Amino acid sequence: MTNLTALTLADARKALRDKSITSVELTRAHLDAIEKAKGLNAFVAVTAERALRSAQASDARLAAGEAGPLEGLPLGIKDLYATQGVHTQACSHILDKFKPAYESTVTSHLWRDGAVMLGKLNMDEFAMGSSNETSYYGPVASPWLPPNWTPEHAKAALTGDKKGLLTPGGSSGGSACAVAARLCLAATASDTGGSIRQPAAFTGTVGIKPTYGRCSRYGMVAFASSLDQAGPIARTTRDCAIMLRSMAGRDPKDSTCYDAPVPDYEAAIGRSVKGMTIGIPREYRLDGMAGEIEALWSEGAQWLKAAGAKIVDVSLPHTRHALPAYYIVAPAEASSNLARYDGVRYGLREDGGDIVGLYEQTRAKGFGAEVRRRLMIGTYVLSAGYYDAYYVRAQKIRTLIKRDFETVFAAGVDAILTPATPSAAFGIGEKGSADPVEMYLNDVFTVTVNMAGLPGLVAPAGLSATGLPLGLQLIGRPFDEETLFTLGAVIEQSAPKLKAPAPWWA
Amino acid sequence: MANLINGATGDWEVVVGLEVHAQVTSKAKLFSGASTAFGAEPNTHVSLVDAAMPGMLPVINVECVRQAVRTGLGLKAQINKRSSFDRKNYFYPDLPQGYQISQYKSPVVGEGEIQVDLTPERSFRVGIERLHLEQDAGKSLHDQSATMSFVDLNRSGVALMEIVSKPDMRSAEEAKAYVTKLRTILRYIGSCDGDMEKGNLRADVNVSVRKPGAPLGTRCEIKNVNSIRFIGQAIEVEARRQIAIIEDGGVIEQETRLYDPGRGETRSMRSKEEAHDYRYFPDPDLLPLEFDDAFIDALRADLPELPDDKKARFMRDYGLSAYDSAILCAEREIAAYFEDTARHGGQKRDAKIVANWIMGDLSAFANANSLAVADAGLSPAGLATLVDLIGEGVISGKIAKDVLLLLLGPERGADPRALVQARGLVQVNDTGAIEAAVDAVIAANADKAEQARTKPGMLGWFVGQVMKTTGGKANPQSVSDALKRKLGLD
Predict the structure, then answer these.
(1) For A97, A475, B260, B457, which has the most beta carbons within 10 A of its beta carbon?
(2) Which positions ≥6 away from A31 have C-beta within 8 Å?
(3) CA distance to partner chain B, nearest, from residue A199 (Å)
(4) A380 touches chain B (CB under 8 A)
(5) What letter would DSSP give residue A17?
(6) Over chain B, what HEC string results?
(7) Residue B185 burial (C-beta neighbours within 10 Å; 0-12, 13-18, 19+)
(8) Domain-by-domain residue ranges, chain A?
(9) Are strands A229-234 and A206-209 parallel, antiparallel or unpaired?
(10) Residue from the list B55, B149, B285 with its beta carbon closest to the beta carbon of A82
(11) B68 phi-psi bin (left φ>0, alpha ψ -120 to 50, beta other)
(12) Average pLDDT, whole number, for chain B?
C-alpha cells in the first residue's frame, strides 16, 4: 500500500471493509505523518498508544463483521472537546494539566461508531480568534506555502516564530491544518462565529457548521453557549456528511440539543439540485470586496445553475449589523461562561495572598490577551446601565437577522450562496496586532449564520490569484443540512480540483 | 394602632417585606442528578455540573418545577405558564460556576396572597410579589485551618424557592406570624420541610420606618436570618436603629446588613455603592420553562387541603373554636392525628374533649420529650379508646391522665381498656361502697362536717378526702352527691 494518508475518509472506510488495509496500518501511517509534521503545530497532544490499541480493536471488529460506521478511521479532535483522561484545555493556560473524568457527547458518539483518536488539535484559546494565533500552545502553520516562498524557506520558518507562514484560520486552525496536511482523515471542530468555515476556506477543506442544536454541546468547553456548535472539517463533502451523521444526535444532557433522528447525510450527496432555488444576498456584496472573491461567487452560482438550480437575488437587510451585534452577544456569554476558571477547583492556580488575589493572579496569568479583551467587553456590555444599550439591542438585531433569513426561505429559497471569507489566508503575525477589529472582519460572512442558528457549509471553490484556496458558503434552512451536502457536492464537482499541498514541512 | 413605635419625636411605623429562601423538597438538585441529602461528608453529593467542570450543562429537574408550581397554587398565586432562567454573576469560592442560575426577569410564580393569623382569632393579609426557582451556593468553611478556607459543595445547586412578599407587614410580630404561616403552608404542601436548623428556610428582611401616613422610607436589607425569633429581633433592633438615626437628623443609607444575635444589633455588610453588579442575563444553556393548563390542573388536583380550609372545616364540622382549630391545624400531622382520633372506629366522639387531650397532656408530653405529637407513642386508636373510657364512666378524667402517662411510658402499645382492667383503675360506681367511704370520712372529721353545714364551700375538701381513701377510683359525681345528702347540703 502506498500513500494511506492520501485516502479520503470514505475511501479509507471502503478499504478497511474490503480488508485491503488494516486500521493499524492506517493509524500508524497517520501517526508517522503527525510526527513528521510537528513543525506545523497542529496537534497539542498525540495519543499514539491509545490510537494503536483502538485500531487493533477496530481491526478485530472489522474481521468479526461488527464494524461501526466509522470503524478504524483515525481522527483528530479539537482541544475544546472533553476527552476522558486526555489533554483538554481549549488551548488555554488556565486549564493547565486539566484531564477530564468525562467524555463529550460528540466524541463519545465517534468512539461508539468505532473511530480512532489520534490526539488533540490546536485551536485559538477558548475558540476566540480567527488565525489560531491566540493559542497558549503557539500558532499553527497552514500546509499551504505562502505565495513566492520556497519549501526550504518555509521549513526553516517553522522552527522560529512562524512569521510570514500562512495561518490556517481559526479558531479550528489545528483541525483544518491537520486535515489539509493529511495528518488525519477528518477532525472535529467547532464554530461560534465562523471557526469551522473560515479555516476550511483557508485550507481548501470542507467544513459544516450544523444547525444550532444538531450536535450536543455537553462536554464542549463553552465559549458562547447560544452560538457554539460542533461540526466536522474533512477533505470532501461526503467525508463531512459521514462525520456529521455520527457526531449529531439527541442528548438529554443538553437542553438545547435537538430531539430528532439524524438523517443519512451521505445519501444527500449526488442528489439532483434541479428545481432548487438558490438565493444570492445583495448585502454580502461589500464595498471594496476583492474582485477575485466576487468572480468566484458568480462562478459558484453558474455551477449551481448549470446543475439545474434557479438563481435569484435576495435581500438580507440587517446583515451589516451582524458583526457588531455578534461582538456583544458572544463576549457577554463568554464573560459568564469563563467565570468558572477561578483557580479554586482545577487548572492553573496562582496564589495571591487572599481569595481576590488568587482570582486576579490566576485569571491574569491564565488567560491570554484576546480572551481577556473579550471578557472585559462582555463584562462591560452586561453591566448595569449598559445592558439595555448593548446586550438587549444586540439581541433585537439578532431577531431581525433571523427574520431576514426566515423571509427569504419562506419565499421559496432552498439555500443561500455567499463567499466564505473576504480574502484568502493571511500570514502569521500579519493581522490584528494593532487593531483587533481587523481580525474580527474575517467573520463578516459567517457570523450571521450563527446569529440565526442556521446550518452553513463551506466547500473549496478555487484558487486566489496567489494560488491559495478560496471557499464558498452555502446557508440552509434550519435542520436542512442535507440540501447543503447536495449543493456542496455540486460545487466540489464543478470547481477545479485542488492539488494537495506538497509536504514541505516533513 | 398598637403597632407604632414610640420615638422621641412621636410615633413611627415600621414597614417590613421579606424574601424567604425555602429549600425545595426533592431528591436531586435543581440542575443535576446529585443528591440533596443533608449531613453527608463534605463534597460527596457533587456532580460534574455542580462543580462547574468545563463543558458541563444544567438540565432542569422537573420535580423542582412541580414543587414551585404546587407552592404557587398554595399561595393562591398567578402561575406563569412561561418563565425563564437568568444568570446572576459574581465571584465566590462556594459558587463554582461564577454565577447563580435564578429567575430574574420572569419567575415561575407571580402575585399571590397569604392570610396570616396574628392570633387564632385575628388575621391579616400579606401580598406575595413572586416566587422563583434558583440554585443554592456551596458552603465556605473558614474555621478548619488558620491559613486556608475550605469549600463544601454538597449544597451547591440545591433548589431554592425565593418567595418575595410585598412590604405588607407593620411589626416584628406580623413578620414572625407571616413566616410561621408561610412555613405551615410549605409543610402542608410538602414543597419545603421548613427545617430552619438545617438552614432549609432563611429570610432576607427588608426594614424601613416612617411617620404614619408618610411615604415609604429608605430600606435596609438584613441578610440571611435563620430563625423566626431572630427575624423578630432583627426587625425590632433595626427599626430602633433607623428611628434613632432619623431623630438625630441623619438619613438612612440603603445598604445590606447582618443581624448579630449575640450582640443584638445589625451591622453593615455593604453599602449601596459597594453593591454587586450581578450582570443578569438570560441563561443560554436553558430553554424557557413552558407548561400548559393540564400540567397545572393536575398539580392543583393533587394538592392537599390547605391550613385555612382545614381550620374552617374543623370549626364547621367539629364545632371547634377558632383557637382550637388554629392550633390543631398549625401542623398537618397534628390535624390528621386529631381527625383520626375523633373519627376512630367510625364513631363520633366529643371533638372538644379529643382536642383538649391533644393540645393538653399529649402535647405537653411530646414537647417535653422533643417529639412530634403523632410520634409520642400513642396511636389515634389508643387516644380514642381513652376518651371513650372516660365517656363511658369507666375511668375518671383524673385517672385517665395517669393512664395516658402509662401508655406513653411503661405500657407503650397496650390496649387502654385492658390496661385499666389489669391495673384495677376502673371507677367505683357501687353506691354502697361509696356511701361507706363517705360515712367513714364524715365520722373521722365530725368537727369539719359540722362546719360544712354552714360553709358549703368545704364540700370540695370532703370530696378530696373520699377520693383519697378510694384511691381516686370512686366516681366523683357519686361521691359529691352522697356527701351533699349526708351533710344536709341539698
Answers:
(1) A475
(2) A46, A48, A51, A52, A118
(3) 23
(4) no
(5) H
(6) CCCCEEECCEEEEEEEEEEEEEECCCCECCCCCCECCCCCCCCCCCCCCCCCCCCCCCCCCHHHHHHHHHHHHHCCCCECCEECCEEEECCCCCCCCCEEEECCCCCCECCEEEEEECCCCCEEEEEEEEEEEEECCCEEECCCCCCCCEEECCCCCCEEEEEEECCCECCHHHHHHHHHHHHHHHHHHCCCCCCCCCCCEEEEEEEEEECCCCCCCCCEEEEEECCHHHHHHHHHHHHHHHHHHHHCCCCCCCEEEEEECCCCEEEEEEECCCCCCCCCEECCCCCCEECCHHHHHHHHHCCCCCHHHHHHHHHHHHCCCHHHHHHHHCCHHHHHHHHHHHCHHHCCCCHHHHHHHHHHHHHHHHHHCCCCHHHCCCCHHHHHHHHHHHHCCCCCHHHHHHHHHHHHCCCCCCCHHHHHHHCCCCCECCHHHHHHHHHHHHHHCHHHHHHHHHCHHHHHHHHHHHHHHCCCCECHHHHHHHHHHHHCCC
(7) buried
(8) 32-271+420-494
(9) antiparallel
(10) B55
(11) alpha
(12) 92
Residues of B in contact with A255 (CB under 8 A): 57-60, 285-287
Cell matching residue B26: 426533592
Interface check B59 vs A, CB under 8 A: yes
Summarised one tens digit per residue, pLDDT across range B49-74 is 999 999 999 999 999 999 999 999 99
Q: Which amino acid is at A495?
A: A
Ranges under pLDDT 70 in chain A = 1-2
Whether the link from the prior residue into A175 is cis, omega within 30° of 0, is no
Closest to A230 in 3D by CA, of A269, A191, A256: A191
Q: Quick one: cell of B179?
A: 413566616
**How many CA within 13 A on the CB side of residue B29?**
27
Residues of chain B with CATH 1.10.10: 431-487
Q: Which three cell numbers stand for residue A35?
A: 510526527
User: Which position among A195, A216, A246, A423 bears the catalytic label?
Assistant: A195
**Segment B407-433, tens digit of pLDDT:** 998 888 889 998 888 887 777 777 788
Q: What is the CATH number of domain B431-487?
A: 1.10.10
Q: Which residues pair with B220 in a beta bridge?
A: B207, B255
| 3-state SS, one letter per residue, for A286-355 | CCCCCHHHHHHHHHHHHHHHHCCCEEEEECCCCHHHHHHHHHHHHHHHHHHHHHHCCCCCCCCCCCCCCH
Asked if the Cβ–Cβ distance from B279 to A336 is below 8 Å, we say yes
What are the chain A neighbours of B56 within 8 Å (beta carbons)?
218-219
Largest CA distance in chain A: 69
pLDDT of residue B1: 44
- List the single best residue of A86, A254, A344 to mutate versus B (max B Cβ within 10 A): A344
Question: What number is the ipTM of this complex?
Answer: 0.96
Q: Which residue has the higher pLDDT, B446 or B380?
A: B380
Q: Say yes or no for a CB contact (<8 Å) between A219 and B58.
A: no
**Residue A224 and residue B91: Cβ atoms within 8 Å?**
no
Task: Choose which CATH entry (3.40.50.150, 3.90.1300.10, 3.40.50.300, 3.90.78.10) describes domain A32-271+420-494.
Answer: 3.90.1300.10
